[in-house]
Amino acid sequence: MVDSSDNKRIAKNSMMLYVNMLYSLCISLYTSRVILNALGFEDYGLYNVIGSVVAMFIFLRSAMGNSIHRFITYSIGKGNIEEVNKVFSSGILIHFLLGFVIVLIAETIGLWFLNTYMVIPDERLVAANWVYQFSIVSIFLSVICVPYDALIVAHEKMSAFAFVQVLNSTLNLLIVLFINSISYDRLFVYGLLLMLVQVVNRIIYGIYCKKHFPECTFILVRDRSLLKEITRFAGWALVGNIAYIGYTQGLNIMLNIFFNPVINAARGISYNIQGALNGFTINIQTAVNPQITKAYVAGEIERLHKLIVASSKLSYYLLFSIVISISSEIEEILRLWLVNVPNYAVSFTLLIFASMLIDPLANPLLIANRATGRIRNYQLSEGCLLLLILPISWVFLKLGYNPESVFIVQLVVFVVTQVARVFLVCHYIKMSYGFYLRKIIYPISIVSIISFFIPVLLHFTLESSIENMILTCLISFINVLTIAYCLGLDASEKLQVNYFVKKIVFKLIKK
After folding, report:
1. pLDDT for 303-313, tens place per residue?
2. Residue 120: CB partners within 8 Å, gap ≥ 6?
3. Dihedrals φ, ψ of 158, to 5°?
4. pLDDT tens column, 25-42
5. How far apart are CA 93 and CA 284, in angstroms?
6. Taking a C-beta distance cutoff of 8 angstroms, is the pair 337, 36 a contact?
C-alpha cells in the first residue's frame, strides 16, 4: 500500500460505505422477515420469480452501465472535463433508448412468457401481472439513472452514494411496516410502493449531479467514434451480463418450472442474505474501483497491483469473517429471524455463501480489465463458462436431482471461471501469476483454513441456546479478523490498517 491522499480517500469512503452497509444490513434482514410473513411463502416466491422474469431483460442495462462507468472514470483520470461531458451526454441518450428497448421486450416476449410458462396460481394471476408492470417501470427508471450514478462513483462522492442507500433502506422499512398493517392485496401494494422508491431515486440523482458536477449537462453528441467505442465496449460486456442473468434469474425461473413458488421463496431468502452480505464487499470495492482505473490510466502499474491485492484481500477477509460466523449457526439464525423457515432455505444459503467468496477476488480483476479496454477475450471466456451453469443445472434437475444441485454446479463453475480470469487479466496488467498466488491466494487460503476450526469446535461443543449462538458468532467473527491481521496481511498493509484504526478511535474519543 502507498501512503497518499488517494489511499486516505479510499479509507474514508470505505468506512462511510461500511457504516452505511451495517445500517442497510439490519434493515434488510428485518424487512425480509416481515415481508415474508406479510405476503406468505407463495406470494413472496411469486414476487421473486416475477422480478426474475423482468431482470432477464436488464442485461442490456448492465452492459451499457459498465461501459459508461468505465469511460467516465477514464476521462476523469485524464482530467478531460469536456470529454466527461460528452461521455455523460452519450450515456443519457443511449440509456433512454435502451430503456425503451427493455420496456418493448418486456411487454411482448416477457409478458407472454410470464402468462404462458410460469407456475402461478390462477387466483394470483392478476396481481402477478400488476407486479410485473410495476417492475418494468422500476427497471426503466433504474436504467436512466445509470449515467448519474457513474458520475457520482467516478468522482468518488461516496457520501451521496451512501445517502441514497440509507434512504432506500429506510423507505423499504416504512413500506414493509405499512404493508403489514393493511388488509388490501399486499403483493399489489408492495410492488407499487417499491416502484415509487425508484422515482425518488431518479429525482435525487438528477438534483445532486446537476448541482455538483458542471459536466452534468446534456449536449447533442455528434462524435460518432465515441459512440461507436462506447457501444463496442458495451457489446462485449453484454456477453458477461447475459451469463450473469442466466445463472441468477435463469436458475430462479428454472426452479419455478421444476418445482413451485415455495422453492422460489427459499431461494429468495437465501439471495436476500447474499445481497445484504455482498453489500460489504461491494461498498469496499466501490471505493477502490475508480482508483484502479485511474492508476492504469496514469501508468502506475505497481500501484495498480497493490490496489488489486488490497481490494481482494480486505474485502475477502471481511466477507469471510461474516460468512463463517453466520454459517456455524445458520439454522438457528434463520429460525429466530423468520420463525417459519421455508424448506431448503438453510442448504441454499450455505451453498450460496460458498459461491459468494469468489466475488471479492473476481471484481478487482474485472475493473482492471475494463481499465485496459481489452475486454473481448475476457468477456467471451467468462461469459461462456458462466453460461454453462444453466444447461448443466437443467440436466441435473431433469435427471431428478434435488434443488441444491443447481447451486453446487454454480460453485464449481465459479471456481473454474476465477482461474480463467487470473490467466487472462494478469497478462494484460503485467502481473505475474506467481505474484497473484503469493500475494492473494496463499494468504487467504491460510486464513480460511485456520479460521475454520474454532467455529466448528464451538458449534459442536456448546449447547443450543440464543446466548451460545451469539457467543459462537461473535468469537468466530473476531477469530477470523485476528488471524487475517496476523497471518493474512504483510507489513505495509498492517501499517495502513493500524493508521486507519487509530484514526477512527481518535475521532470517536474526540467526539
Report:
1. 889 889 988 99
2. 46, 114, 128, 261
3. -70, -15
4. 677 667 777 777 777 767
5. 30
6. no
Instruction: Retrieve residue 439's grid coordinates.
Output: 500475494
CA dist 292 and 152 (Å) reads 16
Q: Output the pLDDT for position 437.
A: 93
Confidence of residue 3 (pLDDT cuts 50, 70, 90): very low
What's the full length of the chain, in residues? 511
From the number of C-beta atoms within 10 Å of its C-beta (0-12, 13-18, 19+), residue 416 rates as exposed
Q: Is 316 buried (19+), middle (13-18) or exposed (0-12) by CB count in 10 A?
A: buried
pLDDT digits (tens, 9 = 90+) for 367-386: 888 888 787 888 888 888 98
Find how far residue 250's CA is from the centre of its chain. 17
Phi and psi (nearest 5°) for 58?
-90, 0
Give the count of beta carbons closer than 10 Å to the beta carbon of residue 95: 24
Residue 60 contacts by C-beta under 8 Å, 6 or more apart in sequence? 98, 101, 102, 238, 241
- Residues 305 and 1: their CA atoms lie apart, in Å, by 10
Q: What is the pLDDT of residues 90-103, one digit of tens each?
A: 888 878 887 888 88
Q: CB neighbours of 313 closer than 8 A, spacing ≥ 6? A: 439, 440, 443, 444, 488, 489, 493
**What's the CA dihedral at 164, 359, 326, 320 to 10 degrees?**
-110
Task: Cell numbers for 104, please give them.
Answer: 418493448
**Residue 435: predicted pLDDT:** 93
For residues 105-124, average pLDDT:
81
What is the C-alpha to C-alpha distance for residues 261 and 248, in angstroms, rounded to an integer?
16
Predicted pLDDT at 441: 94
Between residues 21 and 482, the one the model is more confident about: 482
For residue 279, name the pLDDT band (cuts at 50, 70, 90): low
pLDDT at 258: 84
Cell of 199: 422515482
For 259, list phi and psi in degrees, rounded to 5.
Answer: -125, -110
The count of other CB atoms within 10 Å of the CB of residue 104 is 12
Give the type of residue at 177. L
What CA–CA distance (Å, rounded) separates 86 from 90? 6
**How far is it, in rounded angstroms, from Cα 357 to Cα 470?**
23
d(CA 13, CA 161): 10
Which residues, 6 or more positions from 357, have their beta carbon under 8 angstroms from its beta carbon?
316, 319, 320, 323
The H-or-E segment that residue 429 falls in is none
